[in-house]
Structures are given as structure tokens and as C-alpha cells.
Amino acid sequence: MKKLDWYILKKFLGTFFYAIVILAVITGIIDYSEKVDDFVKSKASAWAILVYYKNFIPYMVAFLFPLFIFIATIFFTSKLAYKSEIIAMLAGGVSFPRFTRPYVIGSLFLAGISLVANHWIVPAANKERIAFEAIYVKEATVASDRNVHLQLSNDLYVYIQSYDYTSNMGYKFTAEKIDGILLKEKLMAERASYDSVTKVWKLYNVMIRKNDGLKEELKFVPEMTRQYASFTPKDLDNNNDLMTAMTTPHLDEVIAREKLRGRENLNQYYVEKHRRTSQPFAGIILTMIGVSIASRKVRGGSGFHLAIGICISATYIMAIQFSSTFSTKAGLNPLLAVWIPNIIFGCVAAFLYRKQTR
After folding, report:
1. How far apart are CA 198 and CA 338, in angstroms?
2. pLDDT, tens only, 146-187
């Protein structure tokens, strides 16, 4: 690391963290203006609101990380170019690849921070943020999805037509035990409620059908209790926001569990998992695009470069949202979906870098 490297690196990181502070304050103010009526209506305390925004800021920073790093690169590099500092460096014998070395070091440093934050720190903040919103902002979930089918184990399948969280009552509950292709037991209840204290299901107007080879047994029970391990009414609510509140090890456990249960669309879980790794690499790619564009002195100065930077950042965010939606709705491979924008913009970065080197 020479003086030149430290000079550029300090400018790079300083501009990046300055941009984070400015945009975090702006997004916080905008979010507060949208939710202030909910805060007043629900009588949220000032301390609770401050804690909420302490957790809200990491969420927004993680979401806009590529935008932050790209704008920071464009902004201070265009200033170096406008003051002819880059021309002086290149005229002094510094090659363009050598000039970009501190950018690579800085982007790798920020990508490492983002990688750790995406997998552990941001999910922890999201957990508290979502809990606050559930109490003070969003209305409580009244009912589950309709016609929910879940596989609880290798031989146990359950079905429920709907569940009313207000009355803590579900309707048309069915539990089936299947051994290979043989239906060993089928339990059908008109109503079902969950006791959170004893962690058992109370079933009403139950019909139980048992098959043992050629022997069949059918009986009716007015009321009974059954315990189904790790199955609660919360499992009936497919809340996508909860994925962002899970650390990656926890998310892996949930994916394995939901896969066993036969959840219809697991791609949304895989997209969330792979996005946490692909996003930091996007920062490195966009840094190289930014330095390749902004290192040339052009008419319009920083304003022109910032306009280009914002357009490219917006295009990247749109691309990642489009590919993710295509994965969750149309079945595109989730790993490929989150890396397609990086592949495309990586090719753009390689082209611009090679052109600038020449």
C-alpha cells in the first residue's frame, strides 16, 4: 500500500460511509412520515420508535448496498477526474490497472462486511423490526391461507381448510398416516384449536378410520387431543417477511423443514438465501463499472457521471427484482436467478475496464 493507495482508499470509504449516513437519514424521514399516523394510533413510545429505526436502517442499507457503493465510486472518482488528478497519476507512470487497485481493495473490504451483515446481523435487526411492525404498524393476521396441505414427517400429512387466529379455531382438519401406499389412519375433525400452553391440538367431532390389512376400524369421538410435534397455527401462515428475519443457518433449517412438509413454493426461500451472497459481489462489479466510467474527464463533470451511475444502479435493482420474481413465480432456478444480474453486469464491467485500459 503506497500513499496513492491510501489516498484513494480514504476517499472511497469516506464517500461511501457519508452516502450511507445521508441516504439512511432520508429514508428514515420518509418512512417516519408514512407511519407517523400508525405510531400515534397505536401509542408507540419514543424509545420503541428509536429502537425500531435502529433496526430499520441496517435493513435499508443492506437493500441499497449496491447503490451506495456505486454512487460513492462515481462521485469521488469523477471529482478526481474533474480536477485532472487522474490525468496526473497516469502521466506519472501509473497504469490504469494499478490505479484501480485501491478500488478493488476497498470494494472487497465492503463486500466482506456486507457478506457477514447479510447472513447474521441484518436478519437479527429484521427480527426486531418485524416484531415492532406487527404490534404498532400492521394489522394482525386474522386468518390463515385456505386449503393448506403440509407433510409433518415421512408418514404424516395434515390438511386444514382455514384457521381463524382471532377465535383460535380451525375448520375441516385432517391428519393422515401413510405407510408406503397404504393409508394406516385417517383422522377427520370438523373443528380444531391449538392450546399453546400444553402444545396440543384439541379436535372436535372427530371421525377416525384405521386400516390394518383387511381389517378396518371406524369410530367417532366428540372431543379429543392430539400432539403433532413442531406443528402450530403459525405454520399455516406463509409470511415471506419472516424469511428476512432468519440467520442463514436458521434459514437452512426452515428450508429443510418446509421441503419435508411439501411447501408449494420453496424458491422464495432459496432466492433469499442466495441473494445474501450474490449482493456483496454486486458491489465489487459496480465499483469496477463506476471507476471505468467516472475516470474520464467529460463535459458535465460529476453531474453527468452521477446521472449515469443512478441509471445503472436502478437498472441493476430492477434486474435483480425481475429475476427474483421470475424464479418465485415461474420456477427459474433460484441460484441462477440471483446471479444473472451479476453475470450481465460483470460482462459490462469487463468490457468497460478493458476499454479504459487500452
Report:
1. 42
2. 899 888 888 999 999 999 998 999 999 999 999 888 899 999
pLDDT attached to residue 249: 94
- Of 55, 84, 64, 68, the C-alpha closest to 19 is 68
DSSP β-ladder status, 156-164 and 169-179: antiparallel
**85 burial level (CB within 10 Å; 0-12, 13-18, 19+):** middle
Query: What φ, ψ does residue 92 adopt, rounded to 5°?
Result: -80, 5
Could you report the per-residue pLDDT of 283-337, keeping only the tens digit for each? 999 999 999 988 887 766 667 777 887 788 788 888 988 898 888 888 899 999 9
SS (H, E, C) the chain: CCHHHHHHHHHHHHHHHHHHHHHHHHHHHHHHHHHHHHHHHHCCCHHHHHHHHHHHHHHHHHHCHHHHHHHHHHHHHHHHHHCCHHHHHHHCCCCHHHHCHHHHHHHHHHHHHHHHHHHHHHHHHHHHHHHHHHHHCCCCCCECCCCEEEECCCCEEEEEEEEECCCCEEEEEEEEEEECCEEEEEEEEEEEEEECCCCEEEEEEEEEEEEECCEEEEEEEEEEEECCCCCCHHHHCCCHHHHHHCCHHHHHHHHHHHHHHCCCCCHHHHHHHHHHHHHHHHHHHHHHHHHHHHCCCCCCHHHHHHHHHHHHHHHHHHHHHHHHHHHHHHCCCHHHHHHHHHHHHHHHHHHHHHHHHC
Which residues does residue 179 pair with via DSSP β-bridges, in sequence order? 182
Sheet holding 156-164, edge to edge: 148-151, 156-164, 169-179, 182-195, 200-212, 215-226
Residue type, 333: N
C-alpha separations of 243 from 232, 272, 273, 339 in Å: 17, 7, 9, 19
Residues 243, 268: contact at Cβ < 8 Å? Answer: yes
Length of the chain, in residues: 358
pTM of the entire predicted model: 0.86
The CA distance from 118 to 116, in Å, is 6
Tell me the residue type at 248: T
